[in-house]
Amino acid sequence: MSNLLKFVEEQFSVKANHPKFKAGDTVTVHYNIKEGEKERVQQYQGVVIQRKGSGATESFTVRKTSNNVGVERVFPVNSPFIAKVELNKVGVVRRARVFYLRQLTGKAARIAEKKQ
C-alpha cells in the first residue's frame, strides 16, 4: 500500500524550481501563451504584492503599471504554463501583503531595494 501512495505522490506533485521570492520583490514571469497553433512566451514584470495558499494551490499576485493603469495578475506557483520566474530586485517591506501599493502612484510607489 505504501508503494502505491509513493507512486501517486510522485506523479501528482509538481515541483516548481522558481527562485525564492516574497512580497515586495520585483520579478519577471515568463508565461507560455498558446494562440491557435502558435505558442509564444510573454514576459510579465512587476512587484509581488502577495503570496497566498500552500502546497499545490499556492499562488502569487504580481502588480505592474501599464499606461498609468495598475494591472494585477495572479499566477499559480505550480502552473505548467510558467516557463520561468526571474528575481530582479529584492524589496524591503515590513508586510506579507503590500496592498497599500494600490493607492500609491509615481515615486511614492517605489519599494526600497535590499542592500547586499
Q: Summed up, what is this model?
A:
The chain is mainly beta. The protein contains one helix and five strands; from the N terminus they run αβββββ.
Task: Describe the secondary structure blueprint for this structure.
Blueprint: H1 2-12, E1 26-35, E2 38-52, E3 59-66, E4 69-76, E5 82-89
Antiparallel strand pairs: 1-2, 1-5, 2-3, 3-4
Question: How would you describe this structure to a colleague?
Answer:
The protein has 116 residues and is mostly beta strands. A hairpin with a 2-residue loop joins strand 1 (26-35) and strand 2 (38-52). The protein has one helix at 2-12; strands at residues 26-35, 38-52, 59-66, 69-76, 82-89. A five-stranded antiparallel sheet has the order 4-3-2-1-5, with no helix packed on it. It is globular, with a radius of gyration of 17 Å.
**Computed structural class:** mainly beta
Strand order, largest beta sheet: 4-3-2-1-5
Strand content: 35-45%
How far apart lie the N and C ends?
49 Å
Rg, rounded, reads 17 Å
Mean pLDDT, all residues: 89
**Runs with pLDDT <50, length 5+?**
none
Major beta sheet, specifics?
5 strands, antiparallel
Number of strands: 5
**Helix-strand sequence:** HEEEEE
Number of helices: 1
Shape: globular
- Helix share bin: under 10%
Question: How would you describe this structure in keywords?
Answer:
single chain; 116 residues; mainly beta; 5-stranded antiparallel beta sheet; 1 helix; 5 strands; 9% helix; 42% strand
